[in-house]
């Protein structure tokens, strides 16, 4: 946790410590006469060096402070080894790295590589240690800052999630995800007047139960009293093992739900309690009809499912919290009714990935990277590429799942906008639609990485959307199962040049330190190393001397 919250004070302390070490080394080597370059001094050619708090040099003085701390340490250790040139090289490298990657190289290495060595805990791995209350609260607070949404295409817990568990032995849903679902059920399916009806009172307690068997038993108990719509819903979601069985239970729930809805609709204006009951009955009815439409879609009756979703959206146009248009879009794509898909996108907040698919469909069958590089992109191709860039900027995790560079898992019941969970949910249901459009995945493969060149610092500034939120990784780890490797963005890997330069500087500093501590022994090692290094060259020279005439060799030597 400490290395995650480095402040400029830390860099000031690091600078002072490095300077102290450099001073002690220089005192020990006073006979050599080497001295470190102070802050604000001038370089080897008389040019002023970067000052620690120069606003033109960087936005955060800590970066340059680390540079000077390392410079002082390197200068002290490499006294007598062209210290001024080494200082200038390290300064230029640190400045270049900050300009290119937006962070200090020392900070990058300390947070990315030293944190695990100093006891940092990987949040993706399970741990048996007890987390302190402060850390738990801060983790929950970061999750709450990222609003999660109910997955409009969520699977059936009994007929799909539980079957996956029976086959693989893995739990596809996390406790956090199921807890959010329990809160949703209590919000949608309960109200203050439940105590007036015994069956509803039982179901109000059932939705709060953590044990699935206890919830199922409570639902059966409620059905023994009367036909309760929410009891049928619970059994259809959690007890049924097939989609056909779930559809049968939802049809029974529909009959009971419509009866309650008609009765509460007539009494809604009598009091606030009746109004709350009517609102609850409306949520129950919409939920049942939406799940019946999803059952029809899963059983292959796609046209029937699309019609049911259209009717539901017309009957309840104000209930946008269920995002029924997402279900309708998926069904229309399965029917390849692209004109209606475009109309739905224009009416509602358009899905960027679906829009990209429609734009790509117009040009993907004839798209060729070689031909495009020779003649340039046409207007339609430019529109398709821009749509792909827009979709990738909104959610950069989607392309790897569509291109099958990462393995898919069952989507969670809740998703985080622009997060890995949303990418999994989209790819799980829409990958088949991308494969059906000829050349669409090829166009995506050729163009999606170009998005990141337009947003080099996505956490600070976006291109078409707001900056990418920094809390997605924490929320996704709570939503996704532990066996899934969460996709993290942005995640920059250090180039080979930077790693090579860092290794070379460290090796040079170590050699200087060893030479200072053990000069005679290092001299012996240096002579042995040089003799071994030049042995092949000496052997070749001896062979050349033996083959060439002495007069010719004498003339070549003089030249």
Detailed description of the structure:
It comes from Gadus morhua (Atlantic cod). It is a multi-pass membrane protein. Keywords: Membrane, Transmembrane, Transmembrane helix. With 559 residues, this protein is mainly alpha-helical. Helices cover 65% and strands 1% of the residues. It is built from 26 helices and two strands. It has a two-stranded antiparallel sheet with strand order 1-2. Helix 13 (302-315) packs antiparallel against helix 14 (324-334). The longest helix is centred in the last third of the chain and has 29 residues, at 519-547. The radius of gyration is 33 Å and the shape is elongated. The model is unreliable at 1-13, 30-85 and 119-144 (pLDDT under 50).
Extract low-pLDDT stretches.
1-13, 30-85, 119-144
Strand content: under 5%
The SSE string, one letter per element, is HHHHHEHHHHHHHHHHHHHHEHHHHHHH
Helix content: 55-70%
Number of strands: 2
Q: Main beta sheet: strand number and arrangement?
A: 2 strands, antiparallel
**Morphology:** elongated
Main location: membrane
Pfam families: ST7 (PF04184)
Keywords: Membrane, Transmembrane, Transmembrane helix
GO cellular component, one term: membrane
Could you give a short description of this structure?
The protein contains 26 helices and two strands.
């Amino acid at each position: 946790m400490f290395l995650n919250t480095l402040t400029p004070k830390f860099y000031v302390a690091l600078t002072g410590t490095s300077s102290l070490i450099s001073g002690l080394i220089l005192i020990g080597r006073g006979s050599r006469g080497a001295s470190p370059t102070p802050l604000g001094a001038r370089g080897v050619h008389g040019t002023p060096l970067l000052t620690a708090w120069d606003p033109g040099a960087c936005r955060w003085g800590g970066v340059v402070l680390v540079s000077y701390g390392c410079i002082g340490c390197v200068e002290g250790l490499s006294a007598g080894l062209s210290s001024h040139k080494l200082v200038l090289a390290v300064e230029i490298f640190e400045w270049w790295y900050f300009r290119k990657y937006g962070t200090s190289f020392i900070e990058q290495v300390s947070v990315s590589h030293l944190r695990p060595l100093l006891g940092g805990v990987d949040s993706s791995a399970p741990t048996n240690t007890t987390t302190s209350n402060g850390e738990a609260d801060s983790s929950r607070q970061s999750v709450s800052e990222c609003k999660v949404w109910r997955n409009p295409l969520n699977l059936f817990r009994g007929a799909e999630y539980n079957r996956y568990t029976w086959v693989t032995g893995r739990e596809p849903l996390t406790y956090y995800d199921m807890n959010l679902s329990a809160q949703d059920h209590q919000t949608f399916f309960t109200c203050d007047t439940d105590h007036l009806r015994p069956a509803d009172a039982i179901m109000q307690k059932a939705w709060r139960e953590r044990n699935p068997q206890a919830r199922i038993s409570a639902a059966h108990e409620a059905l023994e009293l009367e036909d309760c719509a929410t009891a049928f819903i619970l059994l259809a979601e959690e007890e049924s093992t097939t989609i056909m069985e779930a559809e049968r239970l939802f049809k029974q729930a529909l009959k009971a739900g419509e009866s309650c809805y008609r009765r509460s609709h007539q009494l809604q204006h009598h009091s606030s309690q009746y109004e709350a009951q009517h609102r609850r009955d409306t949520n129950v009815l919409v939920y049942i009809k939406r799940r019946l439409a999803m059952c029809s879609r899963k059983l292959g009756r796609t046209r029937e499912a699309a019609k049911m979703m259209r009717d539901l959206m017309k009957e309840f146009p104000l209930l946008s919290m269920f995002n029924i248009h997402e279900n309708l879009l998926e069904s229309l794509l399965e029917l390849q009714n692209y004109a209606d898909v475009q109309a739905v996108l224009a009416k509602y907040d358009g899905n960027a990935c679906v829009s990209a698919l429609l734009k790509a469909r117009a040009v993907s069958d004839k798209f060729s990277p070689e031909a495009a590089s020779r003649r340039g992109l046409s207007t339609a191709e430019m529109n398709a590429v821009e749509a792909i860039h827009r979709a990738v900027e909104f959610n950069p995790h989607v392309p790897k799942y569509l291109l099958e560079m990462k393995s898919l898992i069952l989507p969670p019941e809740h998703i985080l906008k622009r997060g890995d969970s949303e990418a999994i949910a989209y790819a799980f249901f829409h990958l088949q639609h991308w494969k059906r459009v000829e050349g669409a995945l090829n166009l995506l493969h050729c163009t999606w990485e170009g998005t990141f060149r337009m947003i080099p610092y996505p956490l600070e500034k976006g291109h078409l959307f707001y900056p990418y939120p920094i809390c997605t990784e924490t929320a996704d780890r709570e939503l996704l199962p532990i066996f899934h490797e969460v996709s993290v963005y942005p995640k920059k890997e250090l180039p080979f040049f930077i790693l090579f330069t860092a290794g070379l500087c460290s090796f040079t500093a170590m050699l200087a330190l060893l030479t200072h501590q053990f000069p005679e022994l290092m001299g012996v090692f240096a002579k042995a190393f040089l003799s071994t290094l030049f042995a092949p060259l000496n052997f070749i020279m001896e062979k050349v001397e033996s083959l060439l005439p002495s007069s010719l060799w004498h003339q070549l030597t003089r030249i």
